[in-house]
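Morning!

As promised:
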Amino acid sequence: MPPRLTRKFFDRSVHEVAPELIGATLLFNGAGGVIVEVEAYHHTDPAAHSYRGPTPRNAVMFGPPGFSYVYRSYGIHWCLNFVCEAEGSASAVLIRALEPTAGLAAMRRRRRLPDERALCSGPGKLAEALGVTIKHNGLPLDRPPFELRARATEPEIVKGARIGITKAVELPWRYGLKGSKFLSKPFKA
DNA sequence: TGGGCGATTCGCT
DNA sequence: GCGAATCGCCCAC
């Protein structure tokens, strides 16, 4: 079994960490799978929640790397991020999609959906499938309920523009596993 | 296959 | 008050 990712893994540039998360395994209370899609957000980036400085919501982003940042999206969904870089840099990786490999029954129950491809193919779906909510904001990523494993081999990675944002739309900071059927949306060829 | 839209909460202006 | 790092449903093509 590949080694667990330590908090030190996240103590690097978000642009280094984000593509390296593709192919890694994310489990939450034993449910989850292989990370196939992420996006990088840095606080010099107008699309980032940390862009305008610290607030109660984004406080975790300004703390040390290797912790979870969870926020509510569109008043309905929860989205899971991993804080990166040195303390205060306020950067994070949004986890957007998984290929489900563990805890399938629990995830299907939470999602109330039979289709495996729709279980974790988007940030809101993923959080619902794993049972992640605001209660899990600010938790260390190297301890339960999180279990993160490094990828065994280096996968083929595609990159492109991020999804669902209105600022800095051109920055190619979305990363995906090439050819995966579990992406939230295909990457433009 | 893809575009339009409503749902629903809350941080920030 | 506005609008958002989304999703699922409905409709047209």
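The first helix of chain A runs from residue 14 to 21.

Hope this helps with the figure draft.
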